[in-house]
Amino acid sequence: MSAAYATFGLAPATRAGAMLADGGYQVHRDFLDFVVDGRPLLHRLCDLDAVSPLASDVPPAIFTEQVRGLLLEAGAPLPGGRHVIYGCPECADLACGAVTAVIDARGDDYVWRDFAWQTRPDVDLELDGYHGIGPFRFRGHEYRAALHALLGDADADADADGGIGADGGDGERGRDRHDAFARTGRRVLLIGARVAFLARLAAALRIIGIGADITRDAQGVPADELRAYGAVVFGATVGAGQRAAVRDVFDRAGLDVAYVDGPAPILPLLVARIEHALDRSPADQRRLTGLAVADGGADVEVTSSCRVRLTAYRLDRLSRTRTHELFDGILEPGRHRIALDPKAVRGASFVVARTSGSVLVAALPG
């Protein structure tokens, strides 16, 4: 294999949850992606809805075991020294499919090789191998520093640069697992008087794995409790003065949260807006980076080959939600113009663009 080295790091990533047009749900997952040569490894895999084993909701003992496995301090979970690099975001069952690779020690270095799509204990590299990915050779000190930091180990290599990886980190050395996920608050505060609608929104969010609480204001809430929220959602009936008061409470507590205005009482639309607000992954690590709607078309920008779905939502004259699937296909990196059905986007409509990890919302110009 080539003696050239690849850089290794970790970066926060999200598998966006959703209320799907067919009535189903997909779960929200926060995880750490592997950053190889400055680019998320997941982005090299076209149309793959998956998460790494380093997810925020993995029990601590299992999370530690996953990290130890990547460090070769624990045995490989699959025959042939194979480790799961990405797995099913819903159940983590190998039968659903997983990207696996052999991890070897070469002197002080670590090598990831023989990437494959695997659905059973054995694997046929000729049939199921990712022939264009890897092998990757990582410098030992850089690799260990990134992973040991998740464990809070004090024995991380003294010559490491710090953070959670050479490409993915920007914090202090010795950062542990909880610090790595500190920016991915998965709880939202719903503000408003329409309790019935907010209760349905909270229930939808909880189904996909996002906690939600309902209140009329945030006065008197201790700062420690406010820190649990990654976003604040204002109902349509909340006035400017009340919104300012809520913002002031969070500002005085020194907290930076995202604020979401409910443009219309459409549950899947609000879920999408909240998912976007909760996405704290670095902008340069996202697949879906642009959405604009005008002149009968949608301009969509992606950074890597991926599946993109466009869905339109609007309320009809009887305040019923109307949903139209506009596009579902693979887009190559770059900017794309997609024509929209005029019947689907008439009136006060909103378009939601989704990939497996990102979601954007755009309103049609009125």
Describe, in plain words, how this protein is organized in 3D.
- With 366 residues, the chain is an alpha+beta fold.
- It folds into 3 domains: 8-180, no CATH class; 185-279, Rossmann fold, CATH 3.40.50; 286-366, Immunoglobulin-like.
- The protein has helices at residues 60-70, 125-128, 140-151, 177-180, 195-207, 223-226, 240-252, 267-278; strands spanning 8-15, 18-19, 25-26, 29-36, 39-40, 82-86, 98-106, 109-118, 136-138, 187-191, 211-215, 231-234, 258-261, 288-294, 297-302, 306-315, 321-331, 334-339, 349-354, 359-363.
- The strands form 6 sheets. Strands 6-7-8-9 form a 4-stranded antiparallel β-sheet.
- Helix 1 runs antiparallel to helix 3 (140-151).
- It is globular, with a radius of gyration of 22 Å.
Q: What integer value in Å does the Rg equal? A: 22 Å
Number of strands: 20
Order of helices and strands: EEEEEHEEEHEHHEHEHEHEHEEEEEEE
Are there runs of 5+ residues with pLDDT below 50, and where?
153-175
Strand content: 25-35%
Distance between the terminal alpha carbons, to the nearest Å?
58 Å
Main features:
Immunoglobulin-like; alpha+beta; 4-stranded parallel β-sheet; 366 residues; Rossmann fold; 4-stranded antiparallel β-sheet
Short summary:
The protein has 366 residues and is α+β, with helices and mostly antiparallel strands.
Secondary structure layout plus pairing:
Blueprint (H helix, E strand, L loop, with lengths): L7 E8 L2 E2 L5 E2 L2 E8 L2 E2 L19 H11 L11 E5 L11 E9 L2 E10 L6 H4 L7 E3 L1 H12 L25 H4 L6 E5 L3 H13 L3 E5 L7 H4 L4 E4 L5 H13 L5 E4 L5 H12 L9 E7 L2 E6 L3 E10 L5 E11 L2 E6 L9 E6 L4 E5 L3
Parallel strand pairs: 10-11, 10-12, 12-13
Antiparallel strand pairs: 1-4, 2-3, 4-5, 6-7, 7-8, 8-9, 14-15, 15-18, 16-17, 16-19, 19-20
